[in-house]
Design a protein that fits this description.
The complex is a heterotrimer. Chain A has one domain (2-375): Up-down Bundle (Formate dehydrogenase/DMSO reductase fold). Chain A is 75% helix and 0% strand. Chain A has 14 helices and no strands. Chain A has helices spanning 10-36, 51-64, 67-74, 85-106, 115-118, 125-153, 161-184, 196-224, 230-261, 264-273, 277-293, 296-300, 302-329, 344-375. In chain A, helix 4 (85-106) runs antiparallel to helix 6 (125-153) and helix 9 packs across helix 10 (264-273). The two termini of chain A are 16 Å apart. Chain B is globular, with a radius of gyration of 21 Å. Classes of the chains: A mainly alpha, B alpha+beta, C mainly alpha.
């Protein structure tokens, strides 16, 4: 079915070419980083994780959110979600590939990556993160591809796909829980050292992921005239709304604990984090998105809805994709304030990875849309 | 295959508990990785603050310089990418949780040696995904630079800021390389190794030899100087409430 | 052939790329594989024996070095008993480079001609050239 990605209109090829250019720029920036070391980034001895790991953290959430279209169809028999599940699964594939690429570009010795598998260390959460991410990638490729191929050939899907689908649901929750555990188990980093971290991750994942999926469905509608059931979109909006409310609530819980207890580790971390402008932008976008989403009139207007989904996505991308990681490092173990700003090469490499993910997404979505339009 | 919601939730909970069970057991088993067999040597270091007070400000700097010289620690001019195994920090920074306004000048102005604490229950050992950071039988938290993939999880986990990363190739920044000890390459994390290579030939760590305020020895040996010191005087450690069991004791 | 205009050039390009190792070094003379073991330090030895036999070393010196490094770094054991029963200290600098001081004629001679680039030298210092 991949050959379906080779035929497209002018806009399609312009988009693909644009992505290839970005990938080229990202790869050349990475080659520079590979030769010179991570000194080309804005990372430092105090802030040893930054944009790359932040983007990885955010994208694990996006990958997990595929479960939000799988559950209604396979567990609750809501038939209208049948057309959309494969897009959730393909989005998960693209997001997990980006996650793995972000880890690779962050490593100081990427050629030694397989040491994690050669010397398995079950006491390390990062080891488990690799395992569950790899498993989730495999699951979604197998499920998405086989379901789509069955639809294309107009036959029922093979029987062994069903148990994989059911397995992918708790597995999706596990990938983001394990990623949360990366941070939540570190006693020396007060901003992260709370049980709420994993819950916060899941809440923001289920807001940002479906928001992206809504935007992608609207794009598909515009670009390939592929109709997604209004019921599906409405239910996804409901998911985004509830998840965003919970996300903001969880942030407020953090704010209370830090500011009321006034324990220096917690209070100062939060204070210094919110001295960074993009955290306030994230907060304002979140509030703005909720204003739109909680009002029935604006929620149903497609223009306001697009605005709200973009606001949700960008707000959480700023918060999880950068703010969360920086927040753990901003107060050093010596109670100094550490600053971090990504450099141009760092941003180019990140854009390159995003372009690779978007290219995979484009190809997979193109194949899926073509198959589904043909099978109608 | 007919699966109703109830059966699914049951199967899902089973799956989830199954997925969580083994990692949980292994985490606890992994914590035991930090515990060492009885009867072995357990290296530790004590910093005698009273002796430190009589030394000049240069003494600590010189001890650090010896360490950095024999271990080929690069001197990076950019502070953000500094590589340091042992250095001096103000009390209010290294013991940030134990400062108050009524401390005397010694505590306000002097520099205290900080280095890797070679913790009994080291979080860096627990999080390393390849076992490149591991706890040796003699208590030293060792780095295997051949295995390190440079993920820097250990740097995130260390509550003491004791670890440094080689953001760039260190070779140009090592002015007089010591040919008896290797350098590191760019992309690995490094830290104090309690001079394991010197201990192997019966010598004391270089910083201990260079500075009288530093006392080193076997904490399991009740006849050793360090044991007697710790037994007779009160000592504090950095961030003890985190339960990492640091082995650098500061005698007040 | 359908789409012959795209397929045939594509196949030709593929063949060119896939046979790259075969034609790239045509015309270049292969360097002679020769190394020089003798160094002044080795001349001074009574028994000119390495840690293990020459044939073992030639085939497996890297495996020995890997085992040695794990012994020292991970197991903190610094003595090695070779197949002949003799003990020696596990030390690249002392045991190996103590005799093999001529990196250019010994280590590099084989490695360069076989296009092997061991990354040991990223961290470990080159053997000191002979002082004698």
């Amino acid at each position: 079915m991949l050959h379906k990605a080779l035929s497209g209109d002018k806009n399609y090829w312009r988009w693909v070419t644009f992505l290839l250019v970005l990938i080229g720029l990202g790869v050349s920036s990475y080659l520079w980083q590979f030769r010179s070391g991570l000194t080309v980034t804005g990372l430092s001895r105090d802030v040893s994780w930054g944009l790359y790991i932040g983007q990885f953290t955010f994208l694990v959430g996006v990958a997990a959110s595929a479960v939000m279209v799988v559950i209604p169809y396979y567990l609750h028999n809501q038939k209208e979600f049948g057309r959309v599940t494969v897009f959730g699964e393909f989005l998960a594939v693209s997001a997990v590939v980006m996650c793995m690429l972000f880890i690779i570009v962050d490593l100081g010795q990427p050629q030694r990556l397989l040491n994690i598998l050669r010397y398995p260390t079950p006491n390390s959460v990062m080891f488990w993160d690799m395992v569950v991410l790899g498993g989730y990638l495999l699951l979604n490729i197998l499920i998405g591809w086989n379901m789509l191929e069955a639809e294309w050939k107009d036959v029922p899907p093979p029987r062994w796909v069903k148990p994989l689908i059911y397995m992918s649901i708790p597995w999706a929750v596990s990938i983001h829980t394990v990623t949360g555990f990366l941070y939540a188990g570190l006693g020396g980093r007060p901003y992260w050292f709370t049980a709420l971290t994993a819950a916060r991750f899941l809440a923001s994942a289920f807001a940002a992921g479906p928001a992206l999926l809504i935007i992608l469905c609207l794009i598909m509608n515009r670009v390939s005239r592929f109709e997604v059931d209004k019921q599906v979109l409405r239910k996804l909006v409901t998911v985004v709304t509830y998840a965003m409310v919970i996300t903001v609530f969880f942030v407020l819980l953090e704010v209370f604990t830090c500011l009321y207890s006034q324990v220096p580790g917690h209070m100062l971390s939060l204070k210094h984090l919110f001295q960074i402008p993009y955290m306030w932008i994230s907060a304002l976008l979140a509030v703005g998105a909720l204003v739109i989403l909680l009002n029935r009139n604006s929620r149903n207007s497609s223009k306001a809805l697009i605005g709200a989904c973009i606001a949700v996505f960008v707000s959480l991308w700023l918060e999880k994709g950068l703010g969360f990681v920086v927040g753990g490092f901003v107060l050093t173990p010596f109670e100094r304030v550490a600053a971090y700003m990504p450099t141009i090469p760092e941003m180019m490499i990140s854009i390159g990875v995003w372009a690779i993910g978007l290219l995979i997404l484009t190809i997979l979505f193109k194949v899926a849309v073509t198959v589904k339009k043909e099978s109608v | 295959m007919t699966v109703n919601r109830r059966k699914f939730i049951g199967a899902g909970l089973l799956t989830l508990s199954g997925l969580v069970l083994l990692p949980t057991i292994n985490v606890f088993a992994g914590i035991d990785k930090n515990k060492l067999p009885e009867g072995t040597v357990r290296w530790g270091m004590a910093v005698d603050m009273k002796v430190l007070a009589t030394e000049g400000p240069k003494a600590l700097e010189e001890a650090a310089a010896v360490c950095h010289r024999i271990h080929n620690v690069p001197e990076i001019e950019v502070e953000a990418e500094a590589v340091k195994w042992i250095w001096g920090e103000l009390y209010e920074k290294s013991f940030a949780d134990q400062k108050h306004p009524y401390l005397n000048e010694f505590f306000l102005d002097s520099l205290f040696p900080v280095l890797c604490n070679h913790c009994d229950n080291a979080p860096c050992v627990r999080v390393c995904p390849t076992g490149a950071t591991f706890k040796r039988e003699d208590g030293i938290v060792m780095m295997d630079y051949h295995r390190c993939i440079g993920c820097r999880y250990c740097m995130a986990a260390c509550p003491f800021g004791a670890r440094s990363f080689n953001f760039r190739d260190p070779h140009p920044y090592v002015k007089e390389p010591n040919s008896e000890y290797p350098l590191r390459q760019r992309g690995v994390v490094e830290k104090c190794n309690f001079c394991a290579e010197r201990l192997a030939v019966g010598k004391q760590p270089a910083c201990v030899e260079a500075n009288d305020a530093l006392v080193f020895g076997d904490l399991n040996d009740k006849t050793s100087n360090i044991w007697k010191l710790l037994n007779s005087r009160y000592s504090i450690r950095r961030r003890p409430e985190l339960g990492t069991g640091p082995n650098i004791y500061y005698l007040v | 052939m359908y789409d012959a205009g795209k397929i045939i050039p594509g196949l030709i390009i593929f063949l060119i790329i896939i046979t790259f190792p075969l034609w790239y070094s045509l015309g270049q003379s292969a360097p002679v594989l020769g190394y020089q073991v003798e160094t002044p330090e080795i001349e001074q030895l009574e028994e000119k024996k390495c840690v293990e036999s020459v044939s073992y070393m030639r085939a497996s010196h890297m495996r020995l070095l890997d085992d040695w490094r794990n012994e020292v770094v991970r197991n903190s054991r610094r003595t090695y008993i070779n197949t002949a029963g003799k003990t020696c200290e596990i030390s690249l600098e002392e045991t190996c480079f103590g005799c093999h001081t001529n990196k250019a004629d010994f280590c590099d001679a084989c490695h360069s001609s076989l296009n092997v680039e061991p990354d040991c030298w990223n961290c470990h210092s080159d053997p000191k050239e002979s002082q004698l």
